[in-house]
Amino acid sequence: MAKKNILVIEDNHAILDVITLILESEAFNVDGLNKGSDFIDHVHQLKPDVIIMDIMLPDTDGRVLLKELKDTPTTQHIPVLMISARYNAGNYAIDDVLADDFMAKPFNIDELMDKIYALLKK
């Protein structure tokens, strides 16, 4: 079976590194971005099976990227796990656009993996 591709957009390098190490140890191909610029181009290039995205990025709001992703016919099918230290599952939506799942920071590694495997089954 081919390795699954996961794109992680997280501006905190320590968190990005930890998520990358964990996912690579589970045999995923992982690509990380620390800002939102060129996000859609990157998605088209990588063709990720799941996207993990922080809301608060240095150059944009992750919710704006989520809306762009879900409004684009060629990318709207990609499951997205939003992560945030500031928002929660009940208050992060803008324009009624929701991710496929949400996880508050700090998070548990097992919870992260459970959510990723659940999104891959969609």
Automatic annotation (TrEMBL):
InterPro entries: Bact_response_regulator, CheY-like_superfamily, Sig_transdc_resp-reg_receiver. One of its GO terms (biological process) is phosphorelay signal transduction system. The keyword Signal does not apply. SUPFAM superfamilies: CheY-like (SSF52172). It holds the Pfam family Response_reg. Keywords: Phosphoprotein. Residues 5-120 form the Response regulatory domain. The modification 4-aspartylphosphate is found at D54. Gene3D superfamilies: 3.40.50.2300. This is Response regulator. The lineage of its organism: Bacteria, Pseudomonadati, Bacteroidota, Sphingobacteriia, Sphingobacteriales.
